[in-house]
Amino acid sequence: MLNFSFTEEQDYFRRMLKEFAKEELLPNYTKWDREGITPRHLWRKLGELGVSGLRIPVEYGGSGADCVTTGVAAEEIGRGDFNLTYAVMLNGLIGEIISQHAREELKQQWLPQIASGEKIVGIAITEPSAGTDAGGIKTTAVHKGDVYVLNGEKSGISVATVGDAFIIFAKTNPELGNRGISAFIVPADLPGVECKGYEDMGNIPISRGSIYLNDVEVPEVNMIGLENKGFAQVMNGFDLSRLLIGLQCVGAAMQSIDETIEHVKMRHSFGRPLATYQGVQFPLVTHYTQLEMIKWQAYRGLWLRDQGLPHTKESASVKWLGPKYSQEAIHECLLFNGHYAYTKEMPHEQRLRDVIGLEIGDGTAQANMMVIAKDIIGKEYRSY
């Protein structure tokens, strides 16, 4: 039996978020970009709505929602404010890592504050010389007494300059490669932690930057899970975040398509609405169709995750094509809206800049194609 319907609760949740995104998020979407502000008050507002803690268990202040419901939030918040969807996507990944692998005291300390939106926590894997090859990180964590001493540099980290803490991945046994990586919760105010922001093209309110670790002493109780097991933890988590990223991008692109359809109905050229020309209709239909296919592949992947079934190749396909198709759709919408859309008076140019960033984050197109090839051709033929 196939059932492509959402539950009544999920439909209600979607309607609620759609209204919230339209009324409270969309009008100020470009404001935070122009002012270079991370709107922490909206992270807290999403916490009140139960959005910031969707993948955090109820006993720790979260919603305990399934993955499909979390996808609904990513899609609808993405329509209103692409950057605020990090409260869904980033928190979904971090919520799973902490709730499934951390010590009880860490769960009690951090999960309720993440779920409420009071605390923003980032995840730091990428380094200047290790992006797609996450196993090539050079940051080290040396066990000394009851602490681990961390040294290294993390780059391209979301919420770097506004995060209250970071899940830092470091090598506790460099000789083992990616099998010698551990994860730690590192508060941003610990001595030796320094964060510097970037002048990015897009995703400005995400405050991306580098994190420098200079003899940072982290209590050994802050290790998440077992020593040398950090890599496996985050690799499984990426299967979730990649699906959510796909829906985040699709939501933003669909909003641009909806706005553009209204524009081409009203705008006249040679005495007829633009919407009557096949040169306008067919590109919009093409983008809509591509986005719909990505959307349902994403929800299928989230359903598979909820069922405990394999979904790595589905996740990789959504992450590869979701941002690509979305930025292509937004770009076309910008053109259909004419020269005004090239100004910062309309949101299309910002959506384009924002979505392009996620063609890189959480695995490039090439990295995700490598994942799919390993699955469908065979791991013995993998290129890494």
**CATH superfamily name of the largest domain?**
Butyryl-CoA Dehydrogenase, subunit A, domain 3
Main β-sheet, in a few words?
Answer: 4 strands, mixed
Q: Using only CA atoms, what is the Rg? A: 21 Å
The level-1 CATH class of the largest domain: Mainly Alpha
| Average pLDDT for all residues | 93
- What is the H/E string? HHHHHHEEEEEEEEHEEHHHH
Identify low-pLDDT runs.
Answer: none
Principal-axis shape equals globular
Q: How is the CATH topology of the largest domain named?
A: Butyryl-CoA Dehydrogenase, subunit A, domain 3
The strand order across the widest sheet is 1-4-5-8
Structural class: alpha+beta
Q: What proportion of the residues form beta strands (DSSP E)?
A: 5-15%
CATH architecture grouping of the largest domain: Up-down Bundle
Number of helices: 11
Distance between the first and last residues' Cα: 39 Å
What's the total number of strands? 10
Domains (count): 3
Helix content: 40-55%
